[in-house]
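ESCALATION

Customer reports they have been waiting on this structure for their group meeting. Please prioritize. Original submission:
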Amino acid sequence: MKPLMVLGCTSDAGKSWLVTAMCRWFAREGVRVAPFKAQNMSNNARVVEGGEIGVAQWLQAKAAGIEPDVRMNPVLLKPEADTQSQVVVRGIVDRELSATPWEHRHDALWAPMAESFDELRDAFDLVIIEGAGSPAEINLRDQVNNRMIGHADAVGLLASDIDRGGSFAHLYGTWALVPPATRDRLAGYVLNRFRGDAALLSPGPERLTELTGMAFAGVVPLIEHDLPREEGANEKSSRRSDAPTVVIPRFPFGSNLDEFHLLATVASIRWATTAAEFGGLDPERDLVVLPGSKHVVADLEWMRQRGIDLAVRGAVGRGIRCVGVCGGAMMLGSTIEDSQGVEGGRRASAAGLGLLDHHTVMSTTKTIERVNLEAFGRTYPGYEIRYGELSGGGRFVTQGGVTATTVHGLFEQPRFLEDLLGVQAEHVLESTFELLADTVEAHLDAGWLRSLLEVSVNE
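Update from on-call: job pushed to the front of the queue and completed.
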């Protein structure tokens, strides 16, 4: 069975969404399917067997009904400055590659990309590959799209976000600019995130097929769903009038922000970039959360430039509870010391917010592990992914109304939200995976996909 590769005309064209949807769709068709993305760039990561991967591939594996592992995202780039990223290879940080200029990394990164894909291909019936950005960036040496589709000999499905406009130009231009070996493998295209009457698109799809030879695989509507965002903060928020308000600073280097996707179903979330957004909070029900950070010192400085540090301390002084998660927990203490330049590549230190007594020292050894946390008289599953070591060593420390935890994933547990905020939440991922698969079933040419991939299923 040939692998399938979903490529995009642009970044954020819906590649991750489509791969997640098709992983669930093929899985419920009886196919043993696995996701793969050769290289991802995101500060949203999850701890899996062997290390860490981007959250998109973690979600795709969950949709496929399999355990995520590091082969599914063998190279992960985690931005920690405007021109610098931490390089994670097969789940583990490679400090030497992180310090290597980008143009000299290609060969070193290709080996784990190709080996990981080959291992997955041998272990599963079908591998669905997610591309990165656009395959038509002719100024770049593209291993993630063009080299990978050739190595895998994959069937290509090209996606365009029609909600942006210009989809036919995007599709034709991408088809025209990719290398011939990629063009020959672009078997079909999808118009994604459509709203309106699809009958009005004709004769555009037919004309594009005439020009390119790519089959029209379908029009996917713009739908509401609860899938966490691959990058950045989830903009959804509860609309219930009695929902608690949770204020979360939108750090420039915020990390693992996807973990608040369940919170957004039961709370009104303010992603704050100004001090004014910390006003009007109710001590009886509302909350401030300092999220994870890939560059704690830089994000603290960002807070101070905007007066958000004073706003957080003022909110705590008015009786508003505050929870810091990982990097946010480090900020709540007295000092952060990075004498080895672990984050951002420069030696730095900073005073914390002083709301708790601990000190943080950045270590060159990264903690990456899944854990069970005892809190509120219960046990919650979570994960740790950090460089900072907090004095005292506690994973969950509460003093007055201020809580610091080094554990991610707590806000994804309905019982934790109930204990913390008194709200009733329900897990949403399984129902979301089913919704996405139903959407593929209804709006993509499923028969074409089956025949194209030589999939044999029980009808």
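Sent to customer with the following note: The mean pLDDT is 92.
Escalation resolved.
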